[in-house]
Amino acid sequence: MEYKIALIPGDGIGPEIVSEAKKVLDKVCEKYHHTFTYSEVLLGGASIDVHGVPLTDEAIATAKASDAVLMGSIGGDAKTSPWYKLEPSKRPEAGLLAIRKALNLFANLRPAYLYKELEEACPIKKEVIGENGFDMIIVRELTGGLYFGERKTIEENGVKKAIDTLSYNENEIRRIAIKAFDIAMKRRKKVTSVDKANVLDSSRLWRKVVEEVAKDYPEVTLEHMLVDNCAMQLVHDPAQFDVILTENMFGDILSDEASMVTGSIGMLSSASLNETKFGLYEPSHGSAPDIAGQNKANPIATILSAAMLLRYSLNLDEEADAVEAAVQKVLTDGYRTGDIMSEGCKKVGTKEMGDLIAAAV
Ligand code: NAD
Ligand code: IPM
Ligand code: MN
Asked: Is the ipTM of this complex over 0.85?
């Protein structure tokens, strides 16, 4: 079959990890006789350098004309990069938020899974994780909340004041809740909805709507958890979670925390989906300016994101399984990038890891 994939290398380690994921996709094409046509799209700093803005209409059009988008990461070092001298709405991150909104990617899925082979890289004791291991998914609302509320900085009586607003309507909550329950039905049938209902109105509405949606899923156990407790529970007893359903900002923070239970932020893939088969696939981590250009970045999060792309947007389950099995094999064979390195393993760089996984497909 023929498919169109838009590639967004982005900034920092972005181009390095995307090129490894592409290597793996090329191998999938060869083995399963598909043709992927790639078009490169500029986003973030890479777009600012060429067009003066972090996202162009042309970039959105190219993404929309594709079956799916594979992205690296965007952004730079806020202290040293000239991009951060621009006003906030022209900075790299604004481009990422704008493309999420333009493509209506309200559902951000971030699976967090601890491979047996990475137990040594996980900073939490084996006894705490327990027999059944750590295998969960964060379902994060991605186009609402604080990220998209009105924001401004004003001056009142000579005192500067910055305002960010957090709002959700019932429909926004309902559609992401439905996603989470649908996913839970295919897993261990447990949803933990995370909010701050002891303080926020938006969280109280969140709880009410989630309760309503839960009525359509009698087999799924629903529990509510306050976000501060959830942050603690992820370290205290991470294996209790199956599906975490939460709003945009909480999901951002909790997913970085959950990533460490998998051994490294370099392992956490993600899919951002709308109501159709279309999606944007990117690792959960950032552009890691501290290790950019050094062949040190772990490409596995991006490669696993490419597997999600095969599964969700192209319906290529067997191919997705093959990529995931290839990652498993390379870890079993003892190869590690620096972030997941432990004693007795073989340390490799970004490119070597990509080569090994592609060869194992
Ligand atoms: P980051 O995720 O880029 O890096 C945090 C730490 O994790 C760094 O020490 C980095 O070296 C390490 N790390 C990240 N990915 C890694 C990988 N694949 N392999 C090995 N180590 C890895 O977060 P940050 O430093 O807070 O942000 C840097 C830039 O990235 C900022 O401009 C931020 O806005 C942007 N960012 C972009 C995205 C995205 O594109 N989706 C996500 C998060 C942050
Ligand atoms: C992520 C990132 C983004 C977010 C930033 C770069 C805007 O941290 O994808 O997790 O907060 O959503
Ligand atoms: Mn984040």
From this structure: yes
